[in-house]
Amino acid sequence: MSKECEIIRDLLPLYAEGMTSEASNEFIEEHLKNCPECTELLKDMREVPQPEPLKEESELPLKMLSKTYRRKNRSLAVLIASIAASVLISLYAWLSAPRYLDYSSAVESTQEISDGLQITFRDGVHHIGTSSYTDPDGMSCTDIECWTSTLDQLWHAETAEDTIIRSERIWYRSNNNDMNGDVQLYGPDAGGSKTLRRLALNFYFAVSGGLTILLGGLGLLLRRGKAGLILQKAAWIPLSWCLASVIVERGIGAATWSLIRDVSLIVILWITLSIFFLCLDQRLREKKSTLSSLR
Ligand SMILES: [Zn+2]
Predict the structure, then answer these.
(1) Distance 30 CA to ligand 1 centre (A)
(2) In contact, 152 and 105? CB cutoff 8 Å
(3) What are 277-286's pLDDT values in tens digits?
């Protein structure tokens, strides 16, 4: 190897990087024209593989990010759907809440038939409900109640048709808090009667309230641990029941004359409210942890 070749080979790495001066470049290029070995060496230098971008790894965070976004979008959709459903159910519960009518504003006339009564209703009676049972005297009894609702009035629902009831005793249940109580329409006199509101829902309201306080309190006490987090989240479920009960009954005292209707509505509202609160809880916690990780 000539002395010139040695000098050239010292310079080649710099030349390959384009870091040599004009003068050096001229000198190197002149040499390379006549020296295949050095030319070969330069070629090798230029072919050194560039570090490949790590495709998989660089795409991974992007994939995770888009996955997180999709998950967040989905949880936002659930959040919006559950609050929308809760509002609609509440609205329906309020508009369709039965307003019970007392005897004088519900019944136009009654006419005795062979073994019962034919009842004609006044305008504005949109629903009638009957229930039959045997009373303590061993007589077959039928209770009748009448109601309307804001929804029926908005829709101008039809007045209930004449109804024939065959029973040994027939009662009109007023389902209100005034002193007059129920009216016996038919059969041997059974003395006075007063239908009271069903209190069954109060029990569930009280239990849910207690559970909310218990779970929420324990969750706050143990908030440093994982158990605390689970308890805090679990507290939303009984709290949702309390809220659903308050919304459907329009108050804390969950006493009702329409138990089955109210229970159905409370259960549906309870589910949508639970989903809403659990989703909201999750999102707020994620936001909080994102904020604290940014600090
Ligand atoms: Zn050379």
Answers:
(1) 10
(2) no
(3) 999 999 888 8
